[in-house]
Write a structure and sequence with these properties.
Blueprint lengths: L9 H4 L8 H23 L15 H15 L2 H11 L1 H8 L1 H32 L7 H10 L11 H18 L13 E8 L3 E5 L4 E5 L6 E8 L6 E2 L6
Antiparallel strand pairs: 1-4, 2-3, 2-5
Helix pairs in contact: 2-4, 6-7, 6-8
């Protein structure tokens, strides 16, 4: 879902696809690695729940290590994944429209979630965590479906289920007539550089002097800055460039 440029412009609304942002992919897989480490901690630490646990008696130092590390991860990693997914939702909707947008989200998020709820989760609970009763897997599986327990068994796929729900709500809001403002394709500030062999004062665009400042060694760097209506940039003696 992060295959768009940060400069979301009318190009996305016209259906064109921007180059893939590799740094967004790096953020996503980094957060996923942290998610895996969190669930690995749940297996051995005295905190959290997981399908399989192997918890030994821990001392105070070990408990503090797990507690601090798990709390640190919980403070940001899932929020970062939600932020990345939400940031690109507007461009995806502009490019696809309501029905394709929801269908795409269901295929990417809903199908894996249902696969876990009906297949992977029951297999894990019956054969690994031993949390189901007796009578065989088939008997317990039908009981699991009949009693509606599967509705509360998203497990680690809760993120996909929540993101699917948020996407549908967002699509309905957009369909009601509310539109996201397009981001300007122009940069806030553009710079050009030159070198002068002396010490230069730095001034703001409004003319307020900040005093002399050494800008580069051995040569001094001066920049000409231009700005649009939304930015305020530093100008370094443009008359000398």
């Amino acid at each position: 879902m992060a295959d768009l440029s940060l400069g979301t412009t009318a190009a996305t609304a016209n259906g064109s696809r921007a180059p893939r942002l590799l740094f967004i992919d790096n953020i996503r897989w980094s957060m996923i690695i942290l998610v895996l480490s969190m669930h690995a901690c749940d297996t051995y630490s005295p905190f959290g729940n997981w399908y399989y646990v192997d918890r030994q008696k821990t001392d105070l130092g070990t408990a503090l290590f797990f507690g601090i590390y798990q709390s640190f991860l919980q403070a940001f990693f899932m929020a970062a994944l939600f932020f990345v997914a939400g940031y690109f939702a507007a461009a995806a909707y502009d490019r696809k429209g309501f029905a394709p947008f929801v269908r795409d989200r269901f295929l990417r998020l809903g199908v894996p979630t249902l696969l876990f709820m009906f297949v992977i989760g029951p297999l894990t609970q019956y054969f690994l965590s031993w949390t189901w009763g007796s009578g065989g897997f088939g008997h317990q599986w039908f009981k699991h479906i009949r009693d509606g327990e599967w509705l509360s068994e998203t497990g680690p796929m809760w993120f996909c289920a929540a993101l699917l729900l948020f996407s549908i709500v967002y699509g309905l809001i957009r369909r009601s007539g509310w539109n996201e403002p397009l981001m300007s394709p122009e940069p806030i500030c553009t710079f050009s550089y030159c070198h002068v062999p002396t010490q230069l004062p730095v001034t703001l665009t409004d003319g307020g002097a900040l005093g002399p400042s050494m800008l580069a060694q051995p040569e001094m760097t001066s920049a000409v800055a231009s700005t649009n209506k939304t930015g305020r940039c530093i100008t370094l003696l443009p008359s000398l460039c």
